[in-house]
Amino acid sequence: MLRALPVVLALGFVLIGRVNSHQESGEWSCESGSEIRLEAQFRPGLVTLDGHADDWEGIYGSEFSLLPALDPDDDDEYKAGKMTVKTVHDGRDVFFLLQVDGEYKYSKGENNKCPSVALMFQVGEHATYHNMGGCEEEADSCTNKTCKGHEVDIMHFSIGNAIPGRLYGGNPIDNRDGNGGDRFGHLVDVYAWNPHCRHLDGIGPSGNDSSAQNDWKGAWWHSSFDVHSGFVEQDSPYASGNPKGTYYFEFSRPLRTTDRLQQDAQFTIGGSSKMAVAFWYPVDGKPWHGSGHYSINCDWVPMDISSGSSVLSQSSTSSSGSTAGIFALLLSVVSLCSSVFVGYRVLKPKGVPFTPMENL
Ligand SMILES: *[C@@H]1O[C@H](CO)[C@@H](O)[C@H](O)[C@H]1NC(C)=O
Ligand SMILES: *[C@@H]1O[C@H](CO)[C@@H](O)[C@H](O)[C@H]1NC(C)=O
């Protein structure tokens, strides 16, 4: 409970800060709360990547207002609710859950009549949140040389062709082509230097590199669905009408990837990364356009990847209970070993060489 306090304060701070972040004079300004942080705790064996959020229940989440990314005006906040972001890692993969209320909207094959989400991470040291990396080159002049240092890594999931509860993202067919595409569900692995210079991993203005991969996987779900055991495409439109409910988007990616081109963020246990979350929604049924997205903050949100030991040092009842259990088990193993050893010392005849049992 105490852990919630700084974040609540931080959120309050952000809400105040955002009032000042209009793009009134054409100059971008953002006063983001400096205390705002996400933490990916080490929780191995907890999350199944299926779009369902039950397994995340014990994980602490941060709540964010969704304001228009290009002009974060409180009056234009996404009205149906705030977005909760949760993240954990298991030592190999990092997992994200985005949870946001919204009437069920789905139009098969039409991505911009369905909700959509993206995650963005800083890769290059100079990459800013604003302007997706902030390289100042034009679309025809940005290259990995002219925009060096401004790389951001983006995962974008457009669900128009993605069946709820099914896994999308990296797949053998697109990965064989050596790029970040996903022809099945449009959960793509992208990098950018600015909004006009965005490419699938492996594809670039100065040539393609077939060593790239789509390293992301993800699934989505809406709480109005009552079938829990596997939709197929023929089940479209999955739910009738536009019932109210909650959308869940769940993603994972290995902490490290084989990227050699500065197109993937690399996560370090015990380290910190900078991320952003975007959300598109067909407000009033109107299809969204690319720049018409909401964002959880007007700057990067730091994300800490905790090392395993920090979980044990936390004294929540459940984890201290299991820690005590592990300690008791350890003690009993130690005492069993020592009694076997003592027994061996007592029974061992001095100076007698080892004799096989059958010769006794
Ligand atoms: C730029 O990308 C091309 C094609 O992928 C690659 O051959 C080249 O080494 C890259 N240059 C730099 C400076 O990263
Ligand atoms: C790189 O790949 C893209 C998409 O497959 C293709 O359109 C483009 O022609 C390729 N560029 C080069 C230099 O091969």
UniProtKB/TrEMBL annotation:
Residues 1-21 form the signal peptide. Keywords: Electron transport, Heme, Iron, Membrane, Metal-binding, Signal, Transmembrane, Transmembrane helix, Transport. The keyword Metal-binding applies. One of its GO terms (molecular function) is heme binding. It holds the Pfam family EB_dh. The keyword Protein transport does not apply. Residues 53-295 form the Cytochrome c-552/DMSO reductase-like haem-binding domain. This is Cytochrome c-552/DMSO reductase-like haem-binding domain-containing protein. It comes from Dipteronia dyeriana. The lineage of its organism: Eukaryota, Viridiplantae, Streptophyta, Embryophyta, Tracheophyta.
